[in-house]
Amino acid sequence: MPTFVIETPPVVTLPVVGTEALFPVRRVYCIGRNYAAHAIEMGHDPDREAPFFFQKNPDNLDTSGAFPYPPHTSDVHHEAELAVMLRSGGTNIPVSTALDHVFGYALALDMTRRDLQGDMKKAGRPWEIGKAFERSAPVGPVHPASTVGHLDTGAISLTVNGALRQEGDLNQLIWKVPEMIAYLSEYFELAAGDVILSGTPSGVGPVVRGDTMEVSIEGLGRMTVAVV
Questions:
Q1: Is residue 161 part of a domain?
Q2: Which of 11, 42, 90, 217 is surrounded by the most beta carbons within 10 Å?
Q3: Ranges for the Fumarylacetoacetase-like C-terminal domain (predicted)?
């Protein structure tokens, strides 16, 4: 048996609805500006240009129901998203068979240090400092596609302290889930355990300590996350 020079990091796992088995996470891909109204509110053209992606780290995913307000920022924004979990992968996956690689779906948040992200944009630098910080992706349990089907339509919303902030429908995604998988597979070798966050509708905005966020997607229920 091999030995390691340091203690091996734990495998990041997510609970799966209806079973005690866990979904192991390999990578986390996030698509940017995938709803037209959100692209507009961020100051961009909503036309169907080629998609772009950034990454979070597997251990940014957090199922605790608490979001610790991060350091070095005064402008943290919520972004409600659909998470797509892959059971298999490959390269150059056709759109027509892309959904065959999906294990299931979950509610998720792409929490963003918007001020730091804005600084990086102005400097032409990567966004990780604004996107990939600790516990920046609250996520709910995984719902197997064998149970909930493949989600191509359905209301998505987010409230803060009971007030509606974000509202949209999965059918408004500019790049649909099969297209995202196919496009990503042209540039990366996708594999079982990969997670894709599919973008957020308009209405993103700041939260502060003491706020309570609630994300809802039709077919996946609700997820409550407290800002602490």
A1: yes
A2: 217
A3: 28-228
Asked if residue 4 belongs to a domain, the reply is no
- pLDDT tens per residue across span 192-216: 999 999 999 999 999 999 999 999 9
Q: What is the DSSP letter of 57?
A: -
* Cβ-contact 60, 30 below 8 angstroms: no
Using one digit for the tens of pLDDT, what is the confidence trace for 23-38? 999 999 999 889 876 5
Q: What average pLDDT does range 173-201 have in this prediction?
A: 96
Q: Which residues span the domain enclosing 165? A: 15-227
Domain-embedded: residue 113:
yes
Say how far apart CA 191 and CA 202 lie, in whole Å.
Answer: 30
Which strands, in side-by-side order, build the sheet including 53-56? 53-56, 28-31, 195-197, 80-86, 102-109, 143-144
* Beta-bridge partner residues of 156: 168, 217
**Residue at 147 is within a domain:** yes
Output the domain CATH number for residue 122: 3.90.850.10
Number of domains in the chain: 1
